[in-house]
Amino acid sequence: MGAAALSLRGVAERAGLSRQAPYNHFADKEALLAELARVGFERLESRVKEIKGYPKGISLDYAANAYIEFAQSAPALFRLMFSRELVDLSRYPAATAAARSAFGSLAAIVRNLAAPERAEELSLAAWCLVHGYATLSIEMGLGSQQNRLERARLFARVISNDAVTGARR
To answer: 82: how many CB neighbours lie within 10 A of its CB?
Structure first.
């Protein structure tokens, strides 16, 4: 069962609670989904932040790998986190803040590689590369867990090379 089919009543029944119990914590289904997305972004950020301490070039490899691994290990949660059809995170400040913070952890790694004037652009490029691959890997079966780190290294090299060569232009 995916998030679209989820109901607060169904959640209560599966948890052995009264049908009213979820409404004591969540106004509606979207509020519950926003909370799940917030937790997902916090988990994603935690995995990316575990990379601290690696040398600059390697840290981006491992951050990309952590992102892809997160998507592959929790595909339903990953889909929910980025699906405006299921939940409009802009209506939930805590979820929006968690999403921004998760992106910020990736951007911090890129800022260590790039010239300040290129860091924002390269952070977005890194996110697009890794997110696109992570999405394709879960939706289309593109790539396997075995070649995940190899692909993450490729994406990191693309960003790292551009960070170096772009700064010289």
So the answer is: 17
- Tell me the CATH class for 40-168: mainly alpha
Pick the closest to residue 60 from 78, 100, 52 (CA basis).
Answer: 52
pLDDT digits (tens, 9 = 90+) for 107-136: 998 888 888 898 899 999 999 999 999 999
Domain boundaries of the chain, sorted by first residue: 40-168
3-53 tens-digit pLDDT: 667 777 777 777 787 777 777 777 888 998 999 999 999 999 999 888 766
In angstroms, rounded to a whole number, what is the distance separating the alpha carbons of residues 97 and 77? Answer: 17
Dist. CA 30–CA 10, nearest whole Å: 14
Instruction: For 154-165, write each residue's pLDDT tens digit.
Output: 888 888 887 767
User: Burial level of 44, CB count in 10 A (0-12/13-18/19+)?
Assistant: buried
Cα distances (angstroms) measured from residue 100 to each of 38, 52, 70, 107, 142: 10, 19, 17, 10, 27
